[in-house]
Amino acid sequence: MNLEKLLYSAYGFSSFRPGQREIIEQVLAGKDVIALLPTGMGKSICYQLPAKILPNSVLIISPLLSLMQDQVAQLKKMGEKSVVAINSFLKPEDKEKVWSNLGSYKFIFVSPEMLVQPYVKQKLQQIRISLLVADEAHCISQWGFDFRPDYLRISEILPALNFPQVLALTATATDKVTEEIREYLSLKEPYIYRHPMDRENIVYDIKKFDDQRDKLEFLKGFICKFSGPGIIYAGTRKKSQELSSLLAEQGVSSAFYHGGMEHQDRVFVQQQFQNGELQWICSTNAFGMGVHIPNIRHVIHFQLPTSIEGYVQEVGRAGRDGQPALATLLYAQGDEALLESLVMDDLPTQHEIEAVYRNGTAATHLIDQGIVRETAFRVASYWITKLPLEGVNKQMELLRRGKWEQAAKIRELLSLESCLRSYIISCFDQQLADKPSNCCINDGINYEVFAEFLPPAEKQQPLDWQDRLRVILPI
Amino acid sequence: MLFTELIMAIMKAVDRQRTLTSPFHLIKGKKSGQTIQDIGYFNLYPYFGVLPKLDKKAYDQAVQRLFMEGYLLENEQVIELTPKALDAEVAPSPLNGWKYRGNEIIFFQRLSLIVQTLSNTSQGIKIFDPIVNKEEVQAWVKMYLKRIGFRDLTVVQTFKEQLLATLTNTEISEIHKMILMERLSGHELSGLTWQQIADSKELAILDAQLMFVEALHGWMAAIEHAKPSLLIGLMEGIIQQSSLTETAKRTEKLFERGFSLEQIASLRQLKTSTIEDHFVELAMNDPYFNFTPFVDPQLYEAIIAESRQRKTKRLRDIKEHLPQASYFQIRLALAIREEQG
Description:
heterodimer; A: Rossmann fold; Rossmann fold; 2 domains; seven-stranded parallel sheet; B: mainly alpha; Arc Repressor Mutant, subunit A; 3 domains
């Protein structure tokens, strides 16, 4: 089978991107595979293409609802019709059709919490599964920056499905995390593909200030000097709105984006950014997943990221077209205090653990009443089903220490006098092979290349409704 | 109509008879007995459920503004408007909340996806990210587009002309029409967020959202009236045939089969007070509702006379003078009076 030909006929791409071919060949050879591919390197193709050859269904376990929806939408956009998503959004009237034809779907997406429901489990046992894909597999690691306890439940389904062939995909994993993935998924001798984590066209910059005002002034100057498209990550929803207004005052087109906005508004902002109607997005970390914009030139962190892994993932949204992109980390004295509170934010406190313990893991009213925070509830209720109370507290202590270590790495990055790129790569247990000439602030940055990018031509917004209709339907 | 004008319009109708939060429930479209029957008592049909996502905090802030601007007097129990408020005109509005029941959003989602598709396909673009990802809307639009033969450019032309003509003939301001258009997306022109729309018109977000619903209600009425060949198709299933809530309908069916109120409550495993709410709703909607199983005709007359004489629809005021009547009987009688009296 000529894989290139298949790639072209099935998905319209004329060549593989680095890593894809190796991974696909191993999958087709029947091996379990753990694949580390940086964001934007086309992870999905690694199971989409084998699905064209494998005889039966491909089961994809996806930890984030929004990500799952995006993947389903992307598959459908490519003309794939045999797709089903089993999550809490599955409508009762569709259920019967889905369950009775489950085995006929080529791509079955399942969320981890649905996976372990007895009925779902039983239905999955009745069909033939060629490949189980664990997407965003780093979520399995309690040391990872994005730990999702529910995700551990994959290990519970494996025996029930007779240990199918597994492909674990992630964009970010240290050796330690890779080992955890291998262990949890019971993979004996997996083929492990590690793509070099370094993105050589991304230049790393850090700017330090005495106070918040200076930081804001710098940002004002920055967005007047350099043009987008760019993302500015703010720590909070409120901050994202403030920064967006600040940009608007400078006459620079921007919009804010955060999880508190209604769905349609978020779609509009994405679309505006994609269409080049906006230069900047000021956002919480909610923005980025499922955003497919190749020419993002800047990622600015107005607030400190909480882990190197998270930082690399956010920065990795820039420069997917291979052109130079600048990652600017802004720090003002005192920012680490916020960092520490953010780092600890997701973990349940002892008080919260006890509340969940007393009321049981079904007591979601604790969230509504504001007694336990949502993510804290998720983490606490998972561990309570696994360990006695004493053990849960110990577990949290371990996790807390792990998070401290991650935050410590960010602090180290800030204080570094040597190459930032080398340090970041070393956090993933890799070594830098080739150092690009435009590397990082500690090795000197040539900003000229970024100043050369010109702002996109301002589009005139139509002035009255008839005009707007004419632009939308210019027929 | 601005958001505070909406609140005022409702308050004027229920002045001194309802609490400060009752307009909130009405605007949100709460399906409780009290809210549903108030629509009938006070003729508030247009305003029912026009902002289903309304936040209580935002409502409270608007009420505070009304106090500060001298439209409301402090009163622990009920709404008490000042003469200034009573003299103010109710802003005219095409709102028709009871009729459309929030389905205007489905209408608009269909329209958004159709317009986006036509915008792209007519400009030679075959692949794009759909602006609406609800599967039932996507499935509906797919069928609709196939039916009208959307690849034919003259069809696109006709669709656009019908849109232009009906909206031109809708009696709403140009700003209303602009807001509608700004919530639509096409190839290379994206819809605007509420914040962007509000900023550009120096409106509050809630005002812009209310104007959007007004514009939709006005326009949908114009479409229903003119019945343009392509656009009328979008109204499919949008207008509820029965104005009853689903749950009240189920109670009605059981009652018609001869079950008593108490039997229905135990059959449906609902509180009797809930079933009572259903009967009040049924009474409101049926001019020939037979109340005699629930209220003795003499008591009925006495309740109506009391309400007329004291010019009140407050249950407690009537109950005080007619202690032998239950609250349910008073509510039922008042509901019937609106329609039959």
